[in-house]
Each structure stands twice: as C-alpha cells, then as structure tokens.
Amino acid sequence: MQIVHTIAEIRKLVGPARAEGKLVGLVPTMGAFHAGHLALMSRARHECGFVVVSIFVNPAQFGPSEDYQKYPRDQKSDAEKAEVEGVDVIFAPSVEEMYPEGFGSYIEVVGLTETLEGAVRPGHFRGVAIVVAKLFNIVAPDNAYFGMKDYQQLKVIQKMVRDLDFDLEIIPVPTIRESDGLAMSSRNVYLDTKERAAATILYRALEFAKERVLEGERYPAALEAAIRRFIEQEPLAKIDYVAVVDPDTLEKLEKIGASVLVALAVKIGKTRLIDNNVIFGFKEGAFKTPIPL
Ligand code: AMP
Fold first, then answer.
1. Pick the CATH number of 186-283 from 3.30.870.10, 3.40.1190.20, 3.40.1790.10, 3.30.1300.10
2. What is the distance of C-alpha 50 from the center of its chain?
3. If one looks up domain 2-173 in CATH, what number appears?
4. How far is the CA of 275 from the centre of ligand 1 (A)?
5. Same topology between domain 2-173 and domain 186-283
6. Does any ligand 1 atom lie closer than 6 A to the CB of residue 245?
7. Is the CB of 43 under 6 A from ligand 1?
8. How far is residue 134 from each of residues 28, 54, 114, 255, measured CA to CA in Å?
9. pTM for the full predicted model
10. Residue 109 near residue 4 (C-beta atoms within 8 A)
11. Is the pLDDT assigned to residue 283 strictly greater than 80?
12. Mean pLDDT across the chain, nearest whole number?
C-alpha cells in the first residue's frame, strides 16, 4: 500500500489502474479509523480493482466552535488498518494542497441542507460538498462509499452527484455498531467511562422508536415527543434534535407511511453524537393486531 500527499501523485497512481481496466473505488474519510471505516474499505475492496482511501480532516466543514483542532488524528495506525483491508493507496493531502492560497469556490446543495445537521451546523454541508467534489475530481472514482451513519451527508452527496453530473456511483454502507449498539464514531474516544455507558441512549431510543412505529404509531409529533421523553431519562444526555422525517426529502411528515427516518443528535457531556435509523415496512393497520401464524 502506498501513501501519497499530493494531487499529482494520486493522479499518477489512479491513471494507470484505470487504463488497465480496473474499477476505481474511493472511500473519503477524516481518519481515526474504526470498524465503520473498515466496512467501507472492505466493501470497496470487494467491488473494485483499485481502492483509494482519502484521509483529510476538512477545516471547511467544521464550525468555529467545533473540534477541528482536537479531532483525533493517527495516520500510523490508520495506515496499518487500511493495509489489512487491502487498500491500494491512501491519499492524505495537507490543507494547503486542498485549499491553496486564493481558493474561493463552494458548492451549495439546496433543499436537503437546511434541516437537521444543516440547521445546527451552518456551513457544514457547504464544506462537505466542496471537499467531496474536489476528491471526485481528483480521483475520478467509479464508485464512492459513504456510511449511512451520516445519513443526511449521504443524501446531500447523492443530490450533488445528480445535480452536477458526476459520472460515478454512490454506494451507501450500513452503520457499524459496538456490541451494545453505540454507532462507531471517531468522536467516541472523547467519552469517559460514565459517558460511554450513557451514550447507548441513542441506539436504545432508535430501537424504542422502531417498536413504537411497528406497534402502530403514525403521528410524527407523538413519536418525536415519546423519543424525547425516552432520551430525557438519561441524565447525561442533552438533546440537540430529534427528527422524525421523510427519508428522501428530510422534510416533516404529516403521517408515518411506508418508511420514516428517525435522526438524533444528542450531547453526552461535551461530546455531540448523531445516529439514525430508517424504519421500513409499515403498512396501515399491519401491526395493530398480532400477525396470524
Ligand atoms: P468520517 O471519517 O467520520 O468523516 O467518516 C468517513 C466515512 O465513514 C463516512 O462516509 C461516514 O459515514 C462513514 N462512517 C463513519 N462511522 C461509520 C459507522 N459507524 N458505520 C458505517 N460508516 C461509518
């Protein structure tokens, strides 16, 4: 596995692989790898002949009071883990390489970015969109892999790809969790022992929400209120938002139909965690009575 830091170097490696007829897969990351990242790499390895993993803690997607400076960085351990997954090359550019002096272009994805993360992290998706678009232009992958853990990000990227005619496939990968349900996240390292135990409240709240929907709850406002009450049982948890929305538009639903996205952002101590689940398969009346055998 090679590790390169410049755009010229990564293009020099990808070009010949493509010329050999290999499918090129890209896994964009901010590093500090955990099993979630590795699942994306493994999927890319299965589907592509040449796998590029980018590691770039992108300052453009962090707000001024967010954790850009202290975001965990460990390129040595990342390289070891990526190598085990069979990655061909890590692209780890500097901030100057990605945003040289005089840089001034951004991408605004309108329609999906005003709610949830976009509402509480102004400018976040503008930063995500520009860095991902740059990576797409630099690597020109056939497939790009994104985790459903960042559901809204996945939707925003899919829309950007459609709107800007990027000639590539976005491959969504399901959320990888710890054995107690906590979604893997690079930010989990910020949690102390008590907070780590409390952090399972997000997953438990998603499971609770699923049960409520399968039992017949069809009113988003009632479901949202019930989820809030559930999370409020955990003294270390402070709700940022609880959203019960349409999984495609991320807009409010009048009634819960065939599928619904439950998305959560909760602070555990000082650490802000997000998680989500799309609940499928609900049909009017289907779960009100026991299913006959
Ligand atoms: P990050 O390094 O946090 O920017 O994440 C890089 C990619 O890994 C994104 O597409 C994330 O959605 C994905 N990812 C992060 N955590 C998980 C997880 N627990 N399961 C699956 N994918 C994840």
1. 3.30.1300.10
2. 22
3. 3.40.50.620
4. 11
5. no
6. no
7. no
8. 11, 11, 22, 39
9. 0.95
10. no
11. no
12. 95
